[in-house]
């Protein structure tokens, strides 16, 4: 058991060490990409807690991502907040909105849950458009360099931005790893496998699902707030249905219900689109074919295949 | 002796079909009670109402002197009931160890979980299969795992729904010994089709027929009861 734990810590700590070191060797282009990937992977980690570990398929996570982004952005733009409290406002907004949506959506299961989450996310998107006077709607608004000074550190500087993205990713990954190995996370996995049985073991499954949704929404909102802060922009497109589908794809590709899967999936898809768009304008065709092939030959996702073939204890 | 579990006029109707009708059942602390009856007599529906899986149409359930009719299932389990499923319902993709650990973790933490898991698996004879995926176990071993999950909860009332179905002779003998070992500490409500097991382990037997209590008594009394023979043991009594 302890050897297992040591291997797990070595693997996940190893990834963090590689990512930390990577910034000293990567060329500027990939350096910037990786910062973006780490923030988006944090979003995928949040999504994975609800989808991969608890077995609840949400189609409305863009609502949480955008809640974090807009609470942060509007806080800076109109509330005159500095980045730290603005980021915190984003995180709190995500926790509140995911908690409120959980109270409503968890009355349903399965397809109904997907539809309810999708509908609320669409309502959120339309709300952003409706208040276009403040949110600038689809066009969005830029968060100026001067507004992105965190304790004297300029977050628009690539090196600082990389460190900030790395910090967010490291916290999200560690939290996710800790949670799925803790009793709470074990119950979530059991709910995914057989909710009825969990109830008959004396656990309140509703409370556990509620907790999972709040943690998931809060991490997603933190990623949204960080994205806006680090890349200097907030726009309604981040609240669109597309941004609810992305984390689902990343998690499916990387391996739902694995701690590393969200990062692997995000990295894979980012570079798949990046490389194929260098070859042809029909890059979505290439991406589509690869995605179909992966679902055919690695239905558990990349990390899921590793778990199936190589290491069954992979968390 | 005080009653651990009492039902009063407990009934369940499914659209006009009467599954369980006016059942009064009293289990005293520490007894092993068998619930028998022909297929469709309402046994599983009755225990479903006792542990909160099925809402009764009318009547009450009391546990340890407290009316629990309105409590959801998980809270009843929290009070000290454990229920093992008739159709095995283990976590097929999780390890045998994790299945039992989930049952134990609700009341224990840290190293105590490991020892409780080890003990429960040893009691049913599955300790060597602890690392396997539960779905890979044979049907009989999944039944034993169900029982281990019940034991790991250290319940005050253990409800077993046809636990010996699909077990080999040797496993049944072990099960009988296991229930014998619980006698006095844990109250057991056992739905059972295997009459040998019933005669071996039960202090008292309740016979259900068409949703009603047909008879109740010691195994000996039930064995000699003419109404029971007619309804249920007909051919054997011959």
Automatic annotation (TrEMBL), chain A:
A Pfam family it matches: BPD_transp_2
Keyword Cell membrane: yes
Membrane topology: Multi-pass membrane protein
Keyword Glycoprotein assigned: no
CC annotations in GO: plasma membrane
Domain of life the protein comes from: Bacteria
Keywords from the named record: Cell membrane, Membrane, Transmembrane, Transmembrane helix
Positions of transmembrane segments: 51-72, 84-105, 111-131, 162-180, 210-236, 248-273, 279-299
GO molecular function annotation: branched-chain amino acid transmembrane transporter activity
Compartments, record wording: Cell membrane
Major subcellular site: membrane
Family annotation (PANTHER family): ABC TRANSPORTER ATP-BINDING PROTEIN, HIGH-AFFINITY BRANCHED-CHAIN AMINO ACID TRANSPORT SYSTEM PERMEASE
Protein name: Amino acid/amide ABC transporter membrane protein 2, HAAT family
Source species: Roseovarius pacificus
Species lineage: Bacteria, Pseudomonadati, Pseudomonadota, Alphaproteobacteria, Rhodobacterales
TrEMBL record, chain B:
UniProt keyword Transport present: yes
UniProt cross-references to PROSITE patterns, sorted A to Z: ABC_TRANSPORTER_2
ABC transporter domain sequence ranges: 5-235
CDD domains reported for this sequence: ABC_Mj1267_LivG_branched (cd03219)
InterPro entries: AAA+_ATPase, ABC_AA/LPS_Transport, ABC_transporter-like_ATP-bd, BCA_ABC_TP_C, P-loop_NTPase
A GO term from the CC aspect: plasma membrane
Keywords on record: ATP-binding, Nucleotide-binding, Transport
GO molecular function: ATP binding; ATP hydrolysis activity
Transport found in the keyword field: yes
PANTHER family: ABC TRANSPORTER ATP-BINDING PROTEIN, CONSERVED COMPONENT OF ABC TRANSPORTER FOR NATURAL AMINO ACIDS-RELATED
Protein name from the UniProt record: Amino acid/amide ABC transporter ATP-binding protein 1, HAAT family
Source organism of the structure: Roseovarius pacificus
């Amino acid at each position: 058991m302890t050897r297992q734990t040591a291997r797990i810590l070595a693997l996940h700590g190893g990834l963090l060490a590689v990512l930390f070191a990577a910034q000293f060797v990567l060329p500027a282009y990939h350096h910037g990409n990786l910062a973006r990937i780490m923030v988006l992977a944090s979003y995928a980690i949040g999504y994975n807690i609800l989808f991969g570990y608890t077995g609840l398929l949400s189609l409305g996570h863009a609502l949480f991502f955008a809640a974090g982004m807009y609470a942060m952005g509007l806080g800076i733009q109109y509330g005159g907040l500095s980045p730290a409290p603005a980021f915190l406002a984003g995180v709190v907004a995500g926790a509140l909105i995911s908690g409120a949506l959980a109270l409503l959506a968890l009355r349903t299961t399965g397809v109904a849950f997907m539809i309810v989450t999708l509908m609320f996310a669409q309502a959120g998107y339309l709300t952003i458009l409706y208040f276009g006077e403040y949110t600038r709607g689809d066009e969005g608004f830029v968060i100026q360099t001067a507004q992105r000074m965190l304790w004297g550190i300029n977050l628009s500087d690539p090196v600082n931005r990389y460190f900030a993205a790395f910090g967010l990713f490291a916290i999200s990954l560690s939290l996710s790893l800790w949670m799925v190995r803790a009793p709470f996370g074990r119950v979530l996995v059991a709910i995914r496998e057989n909710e009825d049985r969990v109830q008959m073991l004396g656990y309140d499954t509703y409370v556990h699902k509620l907790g999972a949704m709040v943690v998931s929404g809060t991490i997603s909102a933190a990623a949204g707030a960080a994205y806006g802060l680090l890349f200097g922009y907030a726009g309604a497109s981040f609240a669109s249905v597309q941004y609810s589908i992305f984390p689902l794809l990343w998690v499916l590709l990387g391996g739902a219900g694995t701690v590393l899967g969200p990062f692997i999936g995000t990295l894979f898809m980012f570079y798949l689109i990046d490389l194929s768009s260098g070859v042809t304008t029909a890059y979505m065709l290439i991406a589509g074919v690869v995605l179909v092939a992966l679902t055919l030959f690695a239905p558990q996702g990349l990390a899921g295949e590793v778990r199936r073939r190589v290491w069954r204890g992979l968390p | 002796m005080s009653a651990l579990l009492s039902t009063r006029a407990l009934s369940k109707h499914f659209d006009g079909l009467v599954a369980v009708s006016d059942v009064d059942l009293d289990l005293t602390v520490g007894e092993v009670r068998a619930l028998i009856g022909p297929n469709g007599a309402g046994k599983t529906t009755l225990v479903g109402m006792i542990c909160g899986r099925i809402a009764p149409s009318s009547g009450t359930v009391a546990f340890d002197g407290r009316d629990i009719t309105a409590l959801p299932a998980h809270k009843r389990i929290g009070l000290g009931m454990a229920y093992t499923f008739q159709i095995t319902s283990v976590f097929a993709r999780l390890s045998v160890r994790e299945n039992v650990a989930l049952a134990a973790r609700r009341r224990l933490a840290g190293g105590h979980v490991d020892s409780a898991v080890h003990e429960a698996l040893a009691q049913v004879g599955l300790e060597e299969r602890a690392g396997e995926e539960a779905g890979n176990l044979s049907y009989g071993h999944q039944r034993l795992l169900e029982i281990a999950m019940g034991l790991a909860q250290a319940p005050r009332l253990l409800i077993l729904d046809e636990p010996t179905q699909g077990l080999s002779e040797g496993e049944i003998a072990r099960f009988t010994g296991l229930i014998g070992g619980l006698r006095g500490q844990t109250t057991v409500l056992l739905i059972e089709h295997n009459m040998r097991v019933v005669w071996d382990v039960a202090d008292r037997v309740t016979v259900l027929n068409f949703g009603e209590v047909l008879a109740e008594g010691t195994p000996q009394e039930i064995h000699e009861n003419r109404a029971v023979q007619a309804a249920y043991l007909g051919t054997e009594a011959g």
